[in-house]
Amino acid sequence: xxxxxxxxxxVGSCATxxxxxxxxxxxxxxxxxxxxxxxxxxxxxxxxxxxxxxVGTYATQNFGTSAVGGVRLGYHITEDFFVEGVYAISKVSDxxxxxxxxxxxxxxxxxxxxxxxxxxxxxxxxxxxFIGAKRxxxxxxxxxxxxxxxxxxxxxxxxxxxxxxxRVYLMDAVALQLDMRDHIYxxxxxxxxxxxxxxxxxxxxxxxx
Amino acid sequence: xxxxxxxxIKIKHRAVAVALFAALFATLFAVTTARAAxxxxxxxxxxxxxxxxxxxxxPARDGDAERLQITEPYLELxxxxxxxxxxxxxxxxxxxxxxxxxxxxxxxxxxxxxxVGWVSRQQLESTLTAGGVRxxxxxxxxxxxxxxxxxxxxxxxxxxxxxxxxxxxxxxxSETLSVEGTLGQVQGVFSGTDFWHINLLAxxxxxxxxxPFAGVGFxxxxxxxxxxxxxxxxxxxxLAGAVIGVRYHLSDRFVLRADYSLYTAFVSxxxxxxxxxxxxxxxxxx
Lengths: 209, 286
Known about the structure:
Low-confidence stretches of chain A: none
Distance between the termini of chain B: 20 Å
Distance between the termini of chain A: 67 Å
Strand order of the largest sheet of chain A: 1-2-3-4-5-6-7-8
Mean pLDDT of chain B: 75
Strand order of the largest sheet of chain B: 8-9-10-11-12-13-14-15
Helix content of chain A: 10-25%
Number of strands of chain A: 8
Oligomer: heterodimer
Order of helices and strands of chain B: HHEEEEEEEHEEEEEEEE
């Protein structure tokens, strides 16, 4: 109790001692008046990333064509280059084999084919398309190629893909994309291992964000 | 993180490395969400050019867009975000423009008179600096590339004489240290291998155009024999590896890379297999 009283007295005397000090003499004649202003930090949105979905046809060599659907995630590095990751699924049927051979090639009538890849694209011909007399939309014809993996009938195969596509920007953030790709991978489902080329044609919508 | 702080950190434990990998993904996520608003530092009067006191005026907010005052003699507004699109309007110095959107290196601006067009980043550089916009990842020139953080790349090569492809993503922790996550695929005649690993890379001379690097890491290794083989089994093993390589900076965004890796797969308690791999590839900075 006494210690607390002493401490308070000490602190109080110190405070009054400091408060009693006169303000230092200033040499300045003019006292600057700094105008405080609110610095707003400039921010603006960007939409280099894109996400989209597509549907189309996938022609599996030896087996026929089937519908394919997938999603796409991309990033535009510069106005000329972009990268894109794609994942898509299709169901391939071996009816053409079942008609000739009993049993067919797949365990069931339809086998699931899924693929994913990361591709690098080059906008070779950017430009504008004109719709009617009053509308001009930016467009890009691009070449694209990449690597990935295809899972077909429980077998996973590294896949290369090359292709080209066309993209029209309906608005700044929304684009229609038509894509033609050749997926190249080797398969040994029919006995001999051979490199197969599978063409795919898709159309889709992508949103830039 | 300064270099001094990093010397105190000893990466010994796997958990720490995993946490670093998680941080890499979290950063990629953060980059995705943060690029919506290019990060800026508060406008510092000392860093703005001295010759244009008028342009130090506070950037005003106009609805949703930021207004900046043009400091270049003129700005060419194009109809689209590309160097081939025609110039349809020219805005002069000291006019106010509002920046609405950025796509790659092009900015969509709106002048006070209502003209909306795209201006390239090089033309806008002085205006952006005067307006207090801190240089984002994209604006950094080759000299400042050390502040770029996130990189993604692809490489192709040979893994024990079989073709190999790998995709990797790296996050630069400091000027010389980076952490990298790799997904790889090897396709041989009789089997295929999938692996992933996380590496810690050291690049002592990262400010040179040709910079060598070395690293160590660990991961997982999965070997699938071809289904047409009879009686073959998949192998699942832990993987440890060391890598040395060299990077060549093509431009401020793209980097070429060649590396040589030594992998050890711990197939079982008594048996471990060693593999050598050589790859070359290209990567880009976000």
